[in-house]
Design a protein that fits this description.
The structure holds three protein chains of three kinds. Chain A is α/β, with parallel strands linked by helices. Chain A has ten helices and twelve strands. Chain B has a domain at 29-251. Chain B has helices at residues 3-36, 43-58, 65-72, 85-106, 116-138, 155-165, 173-195, 197-207, 209-214, 219-245, 250-254, 258-265, 270-290, 292-295, 303-314. In chain B, helix 1 crosses helix 12 (258-265) and helix 12 (258-265) crosses helix 13 (270-290). Chain B is globular, with a radius of gyration of 21 Å. In chain B, 45% of the residues are buried. The two termini of chain C are 13 Å apart. Chain C is 72% helix and 3% strand. Chain C has a two-stranded antiparallel sheet. Chain C has a two-stranded antiparallel sheet with strand order 2-3. Chain C is built from 16 helices and four strands. The chains are: A alpha/beta, B mainly alpha, C mainly alpha. At the B-C interface, helix 3, helix 5, helix 12 and helix 15 of B face helix 7, helix 10, helix 13 and helix 15 of C. Chain A: One of its GO terms (molecular function) is ATP binding. Chain A: Residues 21-269 form the ABC transporter domain.
């Protein structure tokens, strides 16, 4: 087992803990196409870790590997000091990993409140019979979880829309509801797939604030994919840079910024 | 050859012939599915409707006679003429095109961008409507359909096989004709979609609706086109089946067999529809021949569905479909 | 004016999540229940029971069942008729094998057996989706009907191949068999429907319901947020089949009295129930009631008008009915995919503001 005791404190006083998750030599193929080639990196407790790279670099595939949706052909995923065996995505969710999606994946037929309540499904325990009779544990549980969900609703400032069907919401709010659903699971590790794509400046600022607040207040570890370089450099503690399925850089925003490979990839210098 | 094997071979051959008819209906499904993503449950009823209309034209029935009589107290039923088969077929094809236009106009246009399962249920509604409509228009009694296709035992095959094995195979002339027609239809449809301008547009639409629209292909025209073709295919299937067992409601249920055919062959593949049809046709006859007597017979009712079900569990994309990569 | 929620404040989350959060709705619901239990049983006659009320109550149970599977969990099934047949034959076998046990227990056990069969045919839903699954459920429909037709054990080797319900009583009153009164049939079905509807409502508003709807709306996302698709889909199949099985048992034992499988539980039955939930409203318990009422009443009405008033032939009226049903399905899917339940909801929203819309 890896040494997990290390840790450090950032310049702004946040405590970064030991390694929470480690990806070792991950390779993912679709048929003959390699989406990810031999990538390793780690994620520390309490940090904001960004994955960046041009379109088609394999970022979303990487996130899908972390959330268990894709199973890599080679490599190991270590979480909380244990090697994660082959798992179905719902089992991964129960380990405390939740996520948002690049193309919003909310449940359109349900209200905002119900959507966020689904985030807590992994934490609910009442049985079928209990719920059918709506008696004892089922009712108590519903109320308890509703209270928790209302806190998140307050936190993300979406009180006014809680009974609205999500299908009717504008894009920016949908993104926020999706974040709320992910947060409702009280995750150890939160994966955000382009949380700011398609937003205007104001919405981006709001979203950045929420991400920082989540990290700060709940101590949630966050992995995010984002195209907006300004946002990434401001938010994240460390950055992984991918290109054509390979890792070409890894380090603090400053280190990555001065990495010649990264500059090449972003300025479109010919690959050799 | 031992007798048992001979009988089995005969059953298999007859199954192949029945399979050709399944393929024919399945072809209509595939065309519509490829062009519009609609899983057209009404295809079977379309075949029934086409056959009813054909018989009606041939015998000079007055359309809606039943209804008119009930409302106005008249006693109409026939115009008193007989149309030649070919004229009736052409007229029926015209009706099928008109039907395609109506369907596009009043149903499909309003259902663009709905999830596939809603479209599927809408076609079930359409099937009900068409069934009632066909019955009101032409009456619900069982009708004989005869467009002059050869029927009955093929004596050449009977004689030749008797000569060779000492047992004459019973193969119906109609089945042979059906196989030839189906083969011709498949070839001409393939040529049409590969080499004609409309065919190219059709394939473009099948690939990507938005992109096809943006290069100036009229989606609505394409839909009318495929539904017309599907209507024509239904007409052919209706003629074959109607000649074989009369025009009646059960025709649309037999046509339901095309569904398992498609699940086997994959929804987007024309060769898949053909091969799937042959497998199902032959499979159910052989199953009935070998296993049927042991478990009470009439297994044709469900064999195709159960086969498709089991097959799908192991290979969800069908025989010829590509492996599905799921994305989020 | 009369439909107000102003001043109707909720002070706890439990209050907020109750079935009828608006007081007016709640009062009306109590009124309907009071009439259903307190008035109708005393005035009902044979015609109304057999033509309208009993089929409505039984179909409502089946519609709630299918709505759980299709409307809430998003798995379209065309095997409803076959599953009703399982309920009917299970009930028949139980009734004839254990005559001393209460019919109520037989009906519930029939539902349980159907649930097991439902789970069996639900297993492929893990691999196949959408209309592929719909077609796969046709396998259940055709296979089950064939099975009950061909295996004499199921109909106790009777010469006609039919099953017929012997007389069974509850608290001394016959509820099956020839001697049953209209109000006994009605009350027996009503009590079961009332209990099952209440259970369904509880299931759909809580955790299980959310899991089902998550699978319906986006199965991949649902799995990633922690919903186990296997247990969720199978629970929907099991519970849905339980309801449908109970409906099948009642349909045979109480309503028909004697049944032949192909006729009573053919594929037309599957479509009938499916149409009920499309017209009534997918994903709505109230919609199941509305749809069942509509599909039961419409033919009765049409028959009375076309055959009774205009003197049309019955087969012509039946064809008109087919056309109307088909057209209605298409119209509802185009105009209001959530059915009559949604229309009702919209009407209520209008009423809430009436007569001052601004």
């Amino acid at each position: 087992m890896k040494d997990m005791t290390e840790g450090y404190t950032t310049a702004d006083g946040r405590r970064i803990g030991p390694v929470l998750m480690e990806m070792k030599n991950i390779t993912l193929r679709f048929g003959g196409v390699k989406a990810i080639t031999d990538i390793s990196f780690d994620i520390r407790e309490g940090e904001i870790r960004a994955i960046i790279g041009p379109n088609g670099a394999g970022k979303s595939s990487m996130l899908n590997v972390i959330s268990g949706f894709y199973v890599p052909q080679e490599g190991e995923v270590w979480f909380k000091g244990y090697r994660r065996g082959p798992m179905r995505p719902y089992q991964v969710a129960r380990l405390g990993i939740s996520r948002t999606f690049q193309n919003i994946a909310l449940f359109d037929g349900m209200s905002v409140l119900d959507n966020i309540m689904t985030g807590r499904l992994t934490l609910m325990k009442s049985g079928l019979l209990n719920q059918a009779l709506w008696w004892g544990r089922a009712e108590r549980e519903e109320t308890e979880h509703r209270e928790k969900v209302e806190k998140i609703i307050d936190f993300l400032e979406i009180q006014a829309i809680r009974k609205t069907p999500v299908g009717r919401l504008p894009y920016g709010l949908k993104k926020r509801v999706e974040l709320a659903r992910a947060l409702a699971a009280e995750p150890k590790l939160l994966l955000l797939d382009e949380p700011m794509a398609g937003m205007n400046v104001e919405e981006k600022e709001d979203m950045s604030r929420f991400i920082l607040d989540v990290n700060d207040e709940f101590g949630t570890t966050i992995v995010l994919i984002e195209h907006d370089m300004g946002v990434v450099m401001d938010l994240s503690d460390r950055v992984v840079v991918m290109d054509y399925g390979k890792k070409i850089g890894d380090g603090t925003p400053d280190e990555v910024r001065s990495n010649p490979d990264v500059i090449n990839a972003y300025l479109g210098v010919a690959h050799d | 050859m031992p007798d048992q094997l001979l009988y089995a071979t005969e059953a298999a051959l007859n199954g192949l012939m029945a399979g050709v008819l399944y393929s024919l209906v399945a072809l209509g499904f595939v065309l519509i599915f490829k062009a519009s993503g609609i899983f057209n449950y009404a295809q079977g009823v379309l075949a029934l409707f086409a056959a009813l209309t054909l018989v009606g034209f041939q015998n000079g029935q007055v359309p809606f006679a039943h209804l008119i009589n009930a409302v106005f107290g008249t006693d109409l039923h026939h115009f008193g003429w007989q149309l030649p088969a070919l004229v009736a077929i052409v007229l029926t094809a015209g009706v099928m095109v008109a039907l395609a236009i109506v369907i596009e106009r009043y149903v499909l246009k309003h259902l663009v961008n709905q999830p596939p399962i809603i479209l599927f249920m809408a076609t079930i509604g359409m099937a009900y409507f068409l069934e009632g409509f066909g019955d009101i228009m032409w009456g619900a009694d069982i009708k004989k359909l005869d467009v002059g296709l050869p029927q009955g035992l093929n004596e050449t095959i009977d004689a030749v096989t008797f000569e060779a094995f000492g047992y004459g195979f019973f193969i119906d002339n109609l089945d042979i004709v059906a196989s030839v027609v189906a083969a011709l239809l498949v070839i001409s449809l393939t040529l049409f979609s590969q080499y004609s301008k409309q065919g190219r547009a059709l394939r473009a639409v099948a690939d990507d609706h938005q992109a096809a629209l943006s290069v100036g292909i009229s989606l609505r025209f394409i839909w009318v086109l495929v539904w017309s073709i599907a209507g024509f295919v239904a007409l052919v299937a209706g003629i074959m089946w109607g000649s074989k067992s009369g025009v009646q409601f059960s025709l649309s249920l037999i046509a339901l067999k095309a569904l398992p055919v498609l699940m086997l062959g994959g929804f987007t593949s024309i060769p898949g529809a053909i091969v799937g049809g042959l497998i199902i046709g032959m499979g159910e006859k052989l199953f009935e021949f070998f296993i049927g007597p042991m478990i009470g017979g009439a297994t044709e009712n469900w064999f195709a569905y159960v086969l498709a079900l089991l097959f799908l569990v192991f290979r969800p994309q069908g025989l010829f479909g590509e492996k599905i990569i799921e994305r989020v | 004016m009369f439909y107000r929620e102003a001043g109707d404040f909720k002070t706890s989350y439990a209050d907020d999540s109750q079935t009828f959060p608006i007081r007016f709705d709640r009062l009306r619901y109590y009124a309907v229940v009071a009439v259903a239990f307190g008035v109708i049983p005393f005035v009902i006659n044979d015609y109304w029971a057999n033509a309208v009320f009993v089929p409505f109550l039984i179909y409502a149970i089946a519609a709630i069942g299918l709505n759980i599977l299709t409307g809430y969990c998003g798995q379209v099934s065309l095997g409803t008729g076959g599953f009703m047949a399982v309920g009917a034959y299970a009930c028949y076998k139980l009734m004839t094998a254990f005559p001393e046990v209460s019919i109520l227990i037989h009906v519930l056990l029939a539902g349980g057996i159907t649930a097991m069969v439902g789970v069996l045919f639900g297993l492929p839903s893990l691999r196949i989706k959408g209309f592929y699954l719909a077609v796969a459920t046709l396998a259940a429909q055709f296979f089950l009907v064939w099975l009950f037709n061909k295996v004499p054990w199921f109909y106790n080797y009777s010469a006609s191949g039919q099953i017929s319900a012997p007389e069974r009583t509850i608290l001394g009153h016959p509820v099956t068999g020839a001697a049953t009164t209209a109000s006994a049939k009605y009350l027996f079905c009503l009590v079961i429907l009332f209990a099952l509807a209440w259970l369904a409502r509880n299931l759909t508003r809580g955790t299980v319901g959310r899991k089902w709807m998550a699978i319906r709306d986006m199965d991949i996302a649902a799995e990633i947020i922690g919903v186990n698709p296997l247990t969720t889909k199978l629970s929907a199949f099991a519970i849905s089949s339980f309801y449908i099985g109970v409906a099948g048992a009642l349909f045979f034992a109480v309503y028909l009295g004697a049944a032949e499988v192909g006729e009573a539980f053919g594929i037309q039955k599957s479509f009938l129930i499916l149409f009920m939930i499309i017209i009534g409203g997918l994903g709505s318990i109230f919609g199941s009631f509305a749809g069942a009422a509509f599909m039961v009443l419409m033919p009765v009405l049409l028959k009375n008008i076309l055959v009774g008033q205009f003197g049309w032939a019955t087969d012509l009226a039946a064809h008109v009915e087919l056309m109307i049903v088909g057209a209605l399905i298409v119209i509802f899917l185009i105009a209001e995919p959530h059915g009559m339940a949604q229309l009702w909801r919209l009407a209520k929203e209008k009423l809430r503001l009436w007569p001052f819309p601004h």
